[in-house]
Amino acid sequence: MTSNGPCIVICLSALALYAQAFGAHAAGDSAEQRKRPAIKSNRWEEDWSVLADPKLRTEPLDQFKYIPLFVGDTDSYISFGMNLRERFESNDAPGFGIGAVGGDSYLLQRLQFHVDVHLLDTWQIFTQFEDVRAFGKETPTPADENQLDLRQAFLGYKHEFDSGTLLARVGRQEIGFDLQRFVSSRDGPNVRQAFDAVWAEWDATPWRFKGFVSQVVQYFDEGPFDDASSGNISFSALRFEHDVPNGGISGYYGFYHKESAAYLDASGDENRSGIDARYFGRSGPWDWDIEGMFQFGTVGSKGVVAWAVGSRFGYTFEDVAWEPRLGLQLDGASGDRHSGDDTVGTFNSLFANGSYFNLAGYTTYANLIHVKPSVTFKPTESATVMAAIGLQWRETMGDAIYAAPIHALAGTAGQGSNWTGYYTQLRLDYAINANLSAAAEYVHFGVGNTIRHAGGHDSDYFGGELKLAW
């Protein structure tokens, strides 16, 4: 990896100047300004046609957020945008230090630029490029670095019928479901996940039906524009969503294929089906999100029977200062109980978001029992503070302890006890304005004897980041 310090300086300087310029306008927000679209994680979902009204063009560079294509047609336009994320991370023991892995401190930079073309409120051509770097990281992975490359490029179609709305997309795109436990855009790591896919959706509220077939994009860092997909790894799904009082339900069937997959007790082509169901909602001070997945199929000559459940519950004291929320997260995922038999029981978390448990990467959905009470405060409208403690066990001693994304810790399979360890987590999120935000997270993991006897030790992680979106 080569040094690129000037790029960091330029990006951070641009971030600071933009934030200063935006802040001068933010103080004078009016009702009209608040009609501007919010910045979204999926940038292609934003509708900047509201800037056809010159009175709403009040922020820096608005002339590039809405460029009309045809006179008298406000729905046909070009919009430019960018994202910049700078995150410093320090991890004194990746993988708990097993295998003499040393600590590391580094800067992760994600720079993205997009062009969004809308035609006649029916067609959309969205193209996004990125340059993702890991400055100072000793052993970067494909999820850490990706030189200048194509992040997304798809053609979208939308048509409204009397009975509902048809949406379709063809091309490279990001896909995420729900809390992104198992299918996500992978925003936690530095390089997000995309799919070369054909997507179709029918929205007839309160029902929505979605389906796609895809090849999973694989990321390389040998040179610019070298990312590619193939039939070696593919994923397809059929999904429904339905609104219910105070919430919603959803479910989907997904099929995952990977050539030359490897598990502790099996190897070969993996053909894994998954059936997923979710129920979420909010009623008064209570909120909840419950999801489960059952998997079946084959890895090589062996069968697959695996499962996972995830849940979050919360109670918010809305009439109390700082609006404290008491939360409880319960998660479980199967492991392989019997080495050498004809069944693989290790759950495959597919395309999980790397930040669902925390950013440290010490926890993942494989051979897991996880209990996490938490408390969250809002000292201001812009700031959120969360403190939590996580308790972890293995679902079965027959399988290994796993770290993210699905890395079996050497020397743990069939050894020790089910107790894995505990971690404490402290996180701060602060929205500086509509375009700029900051966050910091600290995690301490106290390992159990199974990890300690395998050569691991207690681990500490710290991450601090700034995110700019225009």
CATH architecture: Beta Barrel
Q: What quaternary form is this?
A: single chain
Mean pLDDT: 92
Do you know the CATH topology?
Porin
What is the beta-strand fraction? over 45%
Question: What does the largest sheet look like?
Answer: 18 strands, antiparallel, barrel
Percent helix, as a range, is under 10%
CATH class: Mainly Beta
Secondary structure class reads mainly beta
Low-confidence stretches: 1-34
Tell me what the structure shows.
This protein has a single domain (5-469), classed as Porin (Beta Barrel), CATH 2.40.160.100. It has three helices and 22 strands. The protein has helices at 5-26, 62-65, 449-453, and strands spanning 67-70, 73-91, 104-119, 123-135, 146-160, 165-173, 195-204, 207-216, 233-244, 247-263, 266-283, 286-299, 302-316, 325-333, 343-344, 368-377, 383-393, 402-403, 407-408, 419-431, 436-447, 459-469. The radius of gyration is 23 Å and the shape is globular. It starts with a helix and ends with a strand. The model is unreliable at 1-34 (pLDDT under 50). Residues 1-26 form the signal peptide. Keywords: Signal. InterPro entries: Alginate_export_dom, Alginate_Permeability_Chnl.
Tag the structure with descriptive keywords:
470 residues, Porin, 3 helices, disordered N terminus
Describe the SSE topology:
Blueprint: H1 5-26, H2 62-65, E1 67-70, E2 73-91, E3 104-119, E4 123-135, E5 146-160, E6 165-173, E7 195-204, E8 207-216, E9 233-244, E10 247-263, E11 266-283, E12 286-299, E13 302-316, E14 325-333, E15 343-344, E16 368-377, E17 383-393, E18 402-403, E19 407-408, E20 419-431, E21 436-447, H3 449-453, E22 459-469
Parallel strand pairs: 13-15
Antiparallel strand pairs: 1-2, 2-3, 2-22, 3-4, 4-5, 5-6, 6-7, 7-8, 8-9, 9-10, 10-11, 11-12, 12-13, 13-14, 14-16, 16-17, 17-20, 18-19, 20-21, 21-22
